[in-house]
Amino acid sequence: MRAVVVREFGGIEKARLGEVPKPAPKAGEVMIEVHAVSVNFVDLVMIGGSYQFKPTLPFTPGKLPVGIVAAVGDGVKNFKVGDRALLMAESGSFTEFVVMPEEQCIKLPASLPFTEAAAMALVYDTAHFALKERGRIKPGDNVLILGATGGVGLAAIQLAKAWGGKVLAAVASKD
What we know:
two-stranded antiparallel ribbon; five-stranded antiparallel β-sheet; 3 helices
């Protein structure tokens, strides 16, 4: 199947279209046919070899693909072929099919277009992790959001407000 393949770390030009074997789901895994995946700064950092972990070369970049469930492994209980899903993949998503354990898959409502789900997945995931896991936000907390005009900043403002936080948004310019 077609995929973006990185054979050596470097600039974006190191990411090339290539062929990789199509995966098959094992027990407890879900496979989707990828309909959308966003391109983020983290992908460039990973391709450059300076992400928080270095993938084994060659690898396929791309986080958090969305699409239609194409197959499920034995024991999968919450997904069936035809479901819409987002997979919490760290990489490997710039391809036609991706496999992940069922517990790392999220059902998508029919009302959410794939392109919108892919566009918002990483920024909301990052904001959620920062506020809940690192910041341990509680209702009534004062929350300073830096970079409030960027994707993660905007997501953090919305989530903090939804969780009862009092938000102070900071930006780098008057504009």
